[in-house]
Fold these 2 entries.
Entry 1:
Amino acid sequence: MMAREAKLTPVGAADGEMVQIRGLRRTFDLSKPWLNRVIERSSRVSLTAVDGVDFSIREGETYALVGESGSGKSTIAKMVVGLLKPTAGSVTINGTNVWGGKSLDAERQMRRSIQMIFQDPFASLNPRWRVGAIIAEPISAFGLITDAKDRAARVGELLSLVGLDPRDGQKFPHEFSGGQRQRIAIARALASDPKFIVCDEPTSALDVSVQAQVLNLLRDLQQRLGLTYLFISHNLAVVRHVATRVGVLYLGRLVEEAPARELFADPQHPYTKMLLEAVPDIDMEGRERQAIAGEIPNPVNPPSGCHFHPRCPARLPECDQDVPVPQHIGDTTVRCHLFDPPSQP
Ligand code: SF4
């Protein structure tokens, strides 16, 4: 395998960056209660779901995090929006540390400017509330519009914005299809006028025929409202249609990051190549689809060195011992020993 020549460039904040994730880490304690451990003579068990992840998102772009189930992508999403505290590292959005101490006012402002769209539109909408009340809730909670008439008009505007009828605000969530419910969830997310939205597998619970409509809506809204997205997905075919940049996760580590066009045209990391070979041939190029080889190992006891080494067709002698460090090749960052600079004599 030929590796592209590695050219090291400094890592740091650049102009236009809205979100900066630095050294993000999250471990979970899976130990049994103390008494059980004493009786069974077992030790503590911990799982590192996210292991020192760094990336930045520029204003107006869609940054996609991809990986198999258990790669840590949803854990990252929760830490970014403030739902889960990191064990270490920082999340900075528009210069404010999501997990740093801040005034109530700054906290409120930050909560308003970040929203999340969840995978399951059936679970994320309160079934007992009318759609109008669901969408109006963030408007009231942040005190954005106090007059009831004006608030109702804003709800109608938001419903139109996502392609629904303003009169749909009178109905209940169960009266809508899956795709329509996801539109309602998007309208609700837009109600607080956010600039940054985390989309956690927003189309994976929907029929394939509806997925493209929701993705087109998200893209259209991004252009009209100047939104920035963090897009979480296991589906590279979906990511290909929406992403500006892509980060590939494997067992909690970012193994490759690149502009979407480059990643799909010329993937570098052996794991990214494996994922891409398994994507259905949407361009009808006659390419044969290869199944992903092996399974993601148990994250409680991950393989040493490069976590991917037991599945890697290109593995080197050092791969089961040494953790690869990020190497920068133009706009691509890759963590793989194939790209290590030659050692000095
Ligand atoms: Fe394969 Fe080694 Fe690269 Fe890991 S570091 S992806 S095992 S070649």
Entry 2:
Amino acid sequence: MFADIILPIPFDSFTYLVPSSMETRVMRGCRVVVPFGKNKIYTGIVRSVHNQAPQGVEAKAIISTLDGHPVVNEQQFTFWQWIASYYMCPLGDVMKAGLPGAMKPTDEKALKAAEKPRAQKATKQQEFETIAPQPLSPAQQTAMDEVVESFQTKNVTLLHGVTSSGKTEIYIHLIDQCLRQGKQVLYLLPEIALTTQITDRLRRFFGEQMGVYHSKFTDAQRLAIYKRQASDNPYPLILGVRSSIFLPFQQLGLIIVDEEHEQSYKQQEPAPRYHARNAAIMLAQQFGAKTLLGTATPSFEIYHWARKGRYGYVQLTQRFRDMQLPIVEVVDAKEAKRKRQMRGAFSPRLIEAMRTALDRHEQVILFQNRRGFSSLIECKQCGWVPRCPHCDVTLTMHKKSATMTCHYCGYTMRIPERCPACEGEKFIDIGTGTEKIEEQITQLFPEATTLRMDLDTAKTRLQHERIIDGFAKHQADILIGTQMVTKGLDFDNVSVVGILDADTMLNLPDFRSYERSFQTFSQVAGRAGRNKTPGLVILQTRSADSDIIRQITQNDYWQMFYTQMTERQMFHYPPFFRLIYVYMRHRDDHLLDHLSDDMAERLRKVFGERVLGPDRPPVARIQSLYIRKIMLKIELNASIDKVRASLMAIQQQMQAMPIAKNLNIYYDVDPL
Ligand code: ADP
Ligand code: ZN
Ligand code: ZN
């Protein structure tokens, strides 16, 4: 007897011999331990059992079995297979993402020892007092009824509701309904939005019916939830991040994807490069379940399909208790600079608004989309700039720790005292990060207290929560942060929000930069406002009279969408075309030039004009590997199966060439 085993490495599966003593325990979905290569051991998942010996090689034997029952069910297999084929990656990569770390150790004894106490810990239950959902407002009730009605005919519905309209209240009612029908619910949130604020809020209603799945949880905690979901007493409700779509479900009735537009739903690195929202729609379909996508600023893809009628569409335009939307004031930073009025990154208008707020004991949020102190330093004398030795980027200066860091690979060095090129001792810093903003505030508002939230200060979940809790309790007057401050936070004492530099986001060389800026600025603006007084947002920009800035200040999603879509259609971008990026990586830049030209030529023979490139991406070397990117723009009605088959065939031709031995090729389907 033989078995095909999926291993946590980038291949689909390998065939192993099943020793006769194990025949009853080697079943599809069970874990086994197998030898690999010269002296490796892997935990794998049995994909199939058969009696066909592999050709040309002798099959190695399975070392041991770990389970008496499958730990991966048929629904999961179907889902894994879909991810692997749609996102063009091997099943092994999907398995790696799909199982908690503790389930696939490379050392069998460690596993056995670790699992026992963990399993016991999992059975310990907490007790929670729960209350009934609060009554909905008339506008919310109407929206809720429309969602329910929409689900009669559509599998997917978009709930487009302004910030603080009560979308979460509607989710709570829908979850309640679904649980009463004996079905399970998955509530997806972007990583950084999954805070204690939202967990506590849902916990109040659903108590111990709810399990939370977070990537910053320990291996043991994640294993416990996985096991619980596979048992006959699973949590009816899972509140989780992107990877929770891989949990075993049994009776899934509804998936809620909150902040549907969030970029972080897409896994960038490593494979599988899946989009959790899109994968969730597939997963729901597999169960005959419904998907509700909620946001104040829909992604173009989803909004487009909602308008075309493929998805249902429900709108909620009122904020709860008629709270008013914030007023957005534009400050012409170019003009202020010309008049020499800027004090660091601050215009007189922003300083004035902040001062007024602070005098009233109100709080302020400042958004700056760059961490660190400055983007780079430069020798004043000769212009020398420190760069990462492994990547094609300049090092970001972090003043407090006196270091320069690569934000791609983590390489860190001390800030040099002298320029290695000319021995000069003076450096100038260029660009403004959150750390520099914090320093400028201590000069402008010496009496104010600040908190900073970015990847440096909020590395762990605990640090992240401390900052949010601290700010909510008014332990600081001003919160400075990157994207992190835009996500699902509810502070009721914030009256002013400052967007320090709108241009860095707007000018990114990306066809989505306007869409993204609109989303980010609306989200961060939504943090301002207290009860009846509307919040004030000060947006500083050098292009004060551009269309996009006008659309942002007027919160005119529709106009922004309309203008951008015309361009997307003209230049064959999503949602009118499907994008696939083909990435090639190699240590040798010249060889990679040659190989990527060769690959692009082969692709052109099949796909013609749909192929663009090869190009060097903006960061063309990461961790000592050079990178090339080839772009494919595919018609929506093209068969994705055929496209994949052609790509795979060409990849095989390439990798059959001896000079391409160390060439790494991978795909990013529907890249963001
Ligand atoms: P959204 O998810 O659209 O941003 P929320 O559901 O967070 O909006 O609602 C904003 C605020 O208003 C929250 O503090 C919430 O508790 C409150 N709220 C919304 N709807 C109701 C309701 N029906 N009853 C009581 N409070 C509500
Ligand atoms: Zn120098
Ligand atoms: Zn680097």
